[in-house]
Request: fold
Amino acid sequence: MAATDGVVVSAGMRHTCAVKPSGHVACWGANDNHQVGRNTMNSNAGTIVGVKTPRTVPGTGPQGTEAMSVRAGGYHSCMRDRENRVYCWGGNETRAVGAESGETVLDLHPVAGDPRFDELAAGRAFTCGRTTDAVLCWGANLRGTITTRDTLRHPAPTTVLSGTSLRDLGAGRYHACVVDQEGAIRCWGNGEDGQLGNGARQDAKQPVTVKADFAARQVTGGVKHSCALSESGRAYGWGNNEQGQLGNGSTSPSATPVEVSGDHRFVALDAGYNSTCGVTEQGELYCWGANDTGQLGDGSTEGANTPVAVRPPYGG
Reply:
């Protein structure tokens, strides 16, 4: 979820990270690429085990590097410090950590070139950072995520978009989107399911404009779908909808934004694998989409193509 100074909780593909008030980062979940930031090798079995409870990432906090926000990606994690510097750790075969070597990174690693970003977004094999007027990405250029015409791995941030005042950034598995100060949304990368929102179902190696009839203030990406929050607090989705993750009462895909059903006014959205969740102005949680593992939080495992209320208490 997003706070005024950054993302305080971020769910990746199989792991989650959070920023504590102290500036420490804690992560838990799968750790096969050390994306949790701590070596959990089982010396007896010779295998890496998952982390079932939050553990502090070494080097973070007042005695090290204080975090402002964190993003969990596919096999890596990245954080932004109080000076907007970026540090990453975990799997780096795709160079999503921002290190020249393709070896797994166990410790906090400054991204190549020491860039400063106001916001981060992490996909499965890439990472992006936003300044006030530019987006730069690094990692594997799969399906056009780095927007260059090659299929190489880029350890150093590469400019995707510049010269436009920007306000929000989001990433899906192999695509990313950004909102400008006028509320227009631009997306790039994998688009075969319509997740770029421009009416087409094909990849884009340059940012394309989402065909939206609303001004957006936030954007988020799932595996094959995207969602945005309008200035008025209405939620919209586009792309794959097999599990009802667009929330419009159907399971039909859409290559342009469709409005989420109901009269809810949201203040924040977050897209998961095949589901989406939002926080309302009243602080209530609603989710929609796939629910095979109970990810909608309504006490069932039945999917929903319209928002369903998450059962309180949210903290357990």
Remarks:
- The chain has no helices and 28 strands.
- Confidence is low (pLDDT under 50) at residues 1-6.
